[in-house]
């Protein structure tokens, strides 16, 4: 009996150790490329190499000295904000309809929202480009924002849905019984409780809208080239750490966005 308990305890320890090893190894695989890129961006040499020979901020200064890169950053910022606004305006009502809707087809609607996100971005980008050509809409910042919003709408919908299914409908019913209209109940009860999920979804959609390449490469205008497309062009004719510095700026923006969500509402409260 004691031998069996010892064997079981040893098996549990080995199992926990294996799980921890896999978790740590997976985490290293996820963050190691980003860390290496950031380290390379501080190298003093004029070509990409690892490990670096020295430390300098020259390449970050050069990022903001090049008008093409600064213009591309502003374009990506505008696209990210437009995508976020579209996802909030369209995604939140869609999530409400999928969870609180009292009509047939709510499940089909929920699945339909996922379809564009399941399609490869390149395929969606080409489809939007051809569809725009058929109706006379040329590539522009507006077409880029709309196509990316369609591509990542599911992120906002699913984030809000996961929060909405945990809300007790009795809260809304109580407000209605006390004389509040459906709109008042939605505005004073539902939306405040959904705010953490909406803000989290807004951050995720903004980061994706700012950093999207697969859709943007087919839908951006000639004068509205976003940062990912500009970075792709930059890689083709230069091998300096300037490319790594641009990537470092993008990584910093993503980290700041997550920190903002964590400090304002807390990542642990998104799905509570």
UniProtKB/TrEMBL annotation:
Signal peptide: none
Keywords recorded for this protein, A-Z: Cell inner membrane, Cell membrane, Membrane, Transmembrane, Transmembrane helix, Transport
PROSITE patterns from the UniProt entry: ABC_TM1
Cell wall biogenesis/degradation among keywords: no
Record family assignment: Belongs to the binding-protein-dependent transport system permease family.
Membrane topology: Multi-pass membrane protein
Sequence intervals crossing the membrane: 12-42, 79-99, 111-135, 141-160, 193-222, 242-267
InterPro entries, A to Z: MetI-like (IPR000515), MetI-like_sf (IPR035906)
Pfam entry (one): BPD_transp_1
Cellular location(s): Cell inner membrane; Cell membrane
Domain ABC transmembrane type-1 intervals: 73-264
Record GO biological process: transmembrane transport
Keyword hit for Cell membrane: yes
Protein name in the entry: ABC transporter permease protein
GO cellular component: plasma membrane
